[in-house]
Amino acid sequence: MIIAIDGPAASGKSTTAKLIAEKLNFIYIDTGAMYRAVALYALKNNLDISNHKNLIKIINSITIRFERINNENHIFLNNIDVTSEIRLPEITKLSSNIATKKIIRDKMVEIQRLLAINQKIIMDGRDIGTVVFPNANYKFFLTASIETRALRRLNEQLTKGIVSNLEDIKNDLIWRDKNDSEREFSPLIKAEDAIEVDTSNMTIEEQVKYILKVLQGDIA
After folding, report:
1. Is residue 218 part of a domain?
2. Is 168 contained in some domain?
């Protein structure tokens, strides 16, 4: 059983997917965290990602896995917990650039499909319903206004003690939307059979409730 949730940054994908996974007892896989882990590896090892040899080195040198610890999803890069490190601001832009590299995307898709074998999973990202699992049992595409998404990201960073500027976050999201939508490989697009959910005026609880109703067949 596979549930795919796609959409732009800060549309509520990750939080919604986590909560639904908890309620349905599914495994939650945060694909965005995987690209962030790759970006962290490149940064720590001073690898220029414009060099194809470095990209080959990266995919041959990393292992990525998820583990549930104290009811929280943790991501491990080469057996080291990097859950907090990958959320640093300097990782965000690099991970978006990393995600445009076909050799990296192919490797991540391979790992994502392996993680889903014989499992009940909910996976969020940019290309889950279009590339990773085009035959997913359910597909959702979450959207929200740029203002709503920027404010959400600001509040998220403030709760983590990261001081940010709302306008800077807004500009970064606009850049990421453009980068994700216009990249040559696996661009951010809505699958034809995905259910679109505009979360601009919805709380996380409302998003979760709506998707659960769809999954339960209460909404056509």
Report:
1. no
2. yes
User: Which of 191, 202, 206 is CA-nearest to residue 125?
Assistant: 191
Distance of alpha carbon 61 from alpha carbon 80, whole angstroms: 13
Question: Model-level pTM greater than 0.85?
Answer: yes
The CATH number linked to 18 is 3.40.50.300
Residues 57-102 pLDDT 10s:
999 999 999 988 887 889 999 999 999 999 888 898 899 899 999 9
Q: How many domains does the chain contain in total?
A: 1
Answer whether residue 220 is part of any domain: no
Q: Is residue 217 assigned to a domain?
A: no
The three-point CA angle 206-191-116 to 5° equals: 80
DSSP per-residue codes, 7-73? -STTSSHHHHHHHHHHHHTPEEEEHHHHHHHHHHHHHHTT--TTSHHHHHHHHHH--EEEEEETTEE
